User: Fold this.
Amino acid sequence: MAVIIRKPIKKYIAFFLLALMGGSVLAGLWLVKQRNLKQSQSYELLAAMPSSFVNSCQKASLQYNVPWELLASVYQVSAEHGLGKQLNEDEDIENIAKAISQSKARNSLNLDTTIIMHSMNVPFSIALEIRARGRLIANKSYLYSGAYSFPYAVAPYYTDTWGADRAGGRKHEGTDLFLPEGTPIYSVCSGKVEKLGWNKLGGERVGIRGNDQIYYYYAHLAEINPDLYTGMKVNRGALLGYTGHTGDAIATPDHLHFGMELPGGKWINPYNFLRYWQVANVLPISK
Ligand SMILES: [Zn+2]
Assistant:
């Protein structure tokens, strides 16, 4: 009798354990998916901010020693709720930075919402939203100091030309950084060489799959560093090659076309990232 009862119980236990294991695996996969989704969201969030706005936030951030992403979130969320004026106003952002630096909120994104409420004079629900937005922007590796750097050791000329018209009805899906032929180009992050060599539009190009899973595209090089090979691991700051005007840039001044593609295949505007990395490297900002 005892044997007859035990066997099914063992079966149930085994089934239960299997279900538990399966469930854990599924939950793990779901968490990874959520994390990647959030990462893409925050990259898009930064890419979509007006660059003058990002520059203002950075300027005020350096001056008052307040995290720039906090300024950005305070200003953005307040504006969305009709509490701020228009975006891109240097003076407003500076005032917010001043208020935060005078409060205990300084240098912390784990902000007490009451501090945001009092220093910004906003209701609780908006303070919560500001905190969440700040975390979404801040919780990303592209902001970690030392994780990324600018692709040049000297300051190039570059503007935001995202979406500008290009030959054949195409739109510009990157940022052009102008420097003389032969100026060395360095990897903005650590990752793996995914694509290397000639393509019709990009000319001599290097494609790096960053450790953040973003694809970084460097085009129109005069020459690729001959030591590189596909699948090679590279560190941030690795020499990728030299500035040129190959591919469809054959008739234009020497420049680096820099592109960033999300893991799903969507290109995003890299301009704000470049500005951020340039400031993080304490290089002069060109106009
Ligand atoms: Zn370009």
User: Anything to note?
Assistant: The mean pLDDT is 81. The chain has three domains: 1-48, 51-139, 167-280. The longest strand covers residues 191-199.
